[in-house]
């Protein structure tokens, strides 16, 4: 039995936690903070790659190349608007991105000052459109630790209780970004018996497990339900994440479902709190009476 199975915080059946159900429009996009622009396609304009990311990518490259050394100032917003032929809104979004990377600091009446030559280590999970799911897999890799069939027992997660007694494929691993020395999270993925023959999950997984399932079995993930809560990291998981036992962690449980609501996969992602942030953007849709 894994540390995850033993950890009381992950046994939601004893202390139910309300589920946060994301409608189709609000799915997940993951980007490692140090290299979140590395896989962007030049000159391509898509919803998953808005223009402000391209601007932030260019400015970040100029900072890291030494064009703007630590202590120097970036051009003003108006100057950047002219340089890039971009709106002020786009430039501000790009600047804010660099602030979150801790490359620059904005100070009233002083300007935007470069504070670091390299972006901070960490990981940010942002929420956007359904197509953004592809970016999470494209910028991370799962190092598989174990893969075995496991019976759904009495102590299983509530989402698995309807499948009591069935043999599900369980894949355990550690996910990293381009900086393979810095673990992003511990993963434990439970795959429905219909898809337990999925190929490509025997060793390092360049994409996510559900992408492998979609490709091989011609099914589509149309809905994700997730529960997020904070809890300390048990010793076994803390060691895998290069953290001390008992350190703060963010536990994310996700259920991947098809258009009919059938569960395809359930996954735990457990992140060190100091190396992870979660950002959500919600647009309000106005409707006439």
At a glance:
By secondary structure, this protein is α+β, with helices and mostly antiparallel strands.
Sketch the major β-sheet.
7 strands, antiparallel
Number of strands: 12
CATH class of the largest domain: Alpha Beta
Task: Estimate the mean pLDDT confidence.
Answer: 78
CATH fold group of the largest domain? Chorismate lyase
The string of secondary-structure elements, in order, is HEEHHHEEEHEEEHEHEEE
Helix content: 10-25%
In DSSP terms (H or I, runs of 4 or more residues), the helix count works out at 7
Q: How many domains make up the 3D coordinates?
A: 2
Global Rg: 21 Å
Share of β-strand residues: 25-35%
Strand order of the largest sheet: 1-9-10-11-8-7-6
What is the CATH architecture term of the largest domain? 3-Layer(aba) Sandwich
Q: What is the rounded distance between the termini?
A: 55 Å
Secondary structural class: alpha+beta
Ranges where pLDDT stays below 50 over 5 or more residues in a row are 5-48
CATH superfamily of the largest domain: Chorismate lyase-like
Shape: elongated
Word description of this protein:
This protein has helices at residues 3-6, 51-65, 77-84, 88-100, 133-138, 209-217, 235-240, and strands spanning 20-22, 27-32, 104-107, 111-114, 123-128, 141-151, 167-176, 183-191, 223-232, 248-257, 263-272, 276-280. The protein is an alpha+beta fold. It folds into 2 domains: 3-31 and 123-280, Chorismate lyase-like (Chorismate lyase, 3-Layer(aba) Sandwich), CATH 3.40.1410.10; 35-114, Orthogonal Bundle (Arc Repressor Mutant, subunit A). The strands form 3 sheets. Strands 1-9-10-11-8-7-6 form a 7-stranded antiparallel sheet. Strands 2-5-12 form a 3-stranded mixed sheet. Helix 2 (51-65) packs across helix 4 (88-100) and helix 3 (77-84) crosses helix 4 (88-100). The longest helix is centred in the first third of the chain and has 15 residues, at 51-65.
């Amino acid at each position: 039995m894994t540390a995850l199975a033993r950890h009381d915080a992950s046994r939601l059946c004893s202390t139910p936690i309300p589920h946060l159900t994301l409608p189709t429009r609000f799915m997940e996009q993951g980007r490692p903070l140090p290299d979140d622009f590395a896989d962007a396609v030049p000159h391509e304009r898509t919803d998953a790659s808005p223009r402000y990311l391209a601007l932030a990518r260019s400015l970040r490259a100029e900072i890291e190349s030494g064009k703007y050394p630590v202590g120097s100032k970036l051009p003003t917003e108006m100057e950047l608007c002219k340089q890039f032929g971009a709106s002020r809104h786009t430039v501000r979004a790009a600047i804010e991105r660099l602030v979150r990377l801790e490359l620059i600091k904005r100070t009233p009446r002083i300007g935007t000052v470069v504070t670091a030559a390299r972006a901070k280590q960490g990981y940010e999970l942002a929420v956007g459109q359904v197509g953004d799911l592809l970016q999470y897999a494209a910028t991370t890799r799962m190092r598989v630790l174990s893969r075995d069939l496991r019976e759904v027992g009495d102590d299983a997660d509530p989402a698995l209780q309807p499948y009591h007694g069935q043999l599900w494929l369980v894949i355990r691993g550690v996910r990293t970004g381009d900086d393979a020395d810095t673990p992003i999270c511990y993963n434990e993925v439970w795959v429905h018996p219909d898809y337990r023959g999925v190929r490509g999950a025997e060793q390092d997984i360049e994409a996510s497990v559900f992408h492998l399932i979609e490709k091989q079995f011609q099914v589509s993930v149309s809905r994700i339900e997730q529960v997020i809560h904070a809890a300390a990291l048990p010793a076994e998981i803390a060691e895998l994440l290069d953290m001390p036992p008992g350190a703060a962690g963010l536990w994310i449980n996700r259920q991947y479902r098809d258009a009919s609501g059938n569960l395809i996969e359930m996954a735990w992602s457990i992140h060190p709190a100091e190396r992870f942030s979660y950002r959500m953007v919600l647009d309000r849709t106005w409707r006439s009476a």
